[in-house]
Design goal:
alpha/beta, UDP-N-acetylmuramoyl-L-alanine:D-glutamate ligase, eight-stranded mixed β-sheet, four-stranded mixed β-sheet, 33% strand
Length: 245
């Protein structure tokens, strides 16, 4: 199978270090850097996970470099600080969208972190070009998302969208709400997940989306896809940093 991911991307940087005292100037920890890791994040992490599942994927994303830098206590894997550099990007152009050979793909994934790459009209246009589209967006939902096949949001995003979803059954019926260790919800049904020792939830939503898309495209069964997506997420949250399946 072959997929297309469209959306914002960044570089996820983790700077791990030793922490054993507080600064004398203020009650903040002093970190002595020990190692640094970096990998593609946001939409780039969706791409990495789909590739890890053994499938081909093309990626349309911003050229502006966005960085998410996390400072972590290496002993306890405790996040001390996150610094977002250049937290916005130039928008996609219609010329780029017009060049896409939509029929080459089994499904299209829209990974919208709301950094400026996609607006509502762009997303609405994409849904007119392919019959199977998946959306993960930080935007408030609206009628512009009616053409999406499935929408993935987390619990915090759901709370922001409660009023909208309560008035729009069409959106509600295609929305999957992830709830961390409580599993996820789809069409009033709760899908529980296995309890594991969680080391890092960074990028877990990207992994869920990747597993959901791959399994649904294969099976055309949304319950099977949700269960598979949760199995994938269970794997990555037991790893340190933004990890793939």
């Amino acid at each position: 199978m072959k997929f297309l991911v469209i959306g914002d991307s960044c570089i996820d940087i983790f700077r791990y270090g030793k922490v054993d005292r507080l600064a004398p100037e203020a009650p903040v920890p002093i970190i002595t850097p020990e190692k640094e890791t970096s990998n593609p994040g946001m939409g780039g992490n969706v791409v990495r996970n789909i590739e890890a599942l053994g499938h081909n994927v093309d990626f349309i994303t911003n050229v502006d470099e966005i960085k998410k830098i996390r400072y972590v206590c290496s002993k306890y894997n405790h996040l001390l600080l996150r610094v977002d550099e250049n937290d916005s990007c130039q928008p996609i152009t219609q010329k780029v969208l017009d060049r896409v050979k939509w029929n080459d793909y089994d499904a299209v994934i829209i990974s919208d972190y709301c950094k400026g790459f996609l607006d509502e009209n762009d997303i609405k246009y994409i849904t007119t070009k392919h019959p199977l589209t998946f959306l993960d967006s930080k935007k408030l939902l609206g009628t512009w998302a009616h053409g999406i096949s499935f929408i993935k949001i987390n619990h915090h995003e759901y709370e922001r969208n409660i009023e909208i979803l309560s008035k729009d059954k069409f959106l509600t019926d295609k929305t999957i709400i992830t709830r961390g260790h409580l599993g996820c919800q789809y069409q009033n049904k709760i899908y529980p997940t296995k309890e594991v020792s969680v080391k890092d939830v960074s990028g877990a939503g990207d992994t869920f989306l990747s597993g959901l898309v791959v399994e649904f495209t294969r099976s055309k069964n949304i319950e099977s896809a949700i269960n598979f997506a949760q199995e994938c997420t269970t794997i990555v949250v037991q790893k340190i940093g933004v990890s793939t399946i």
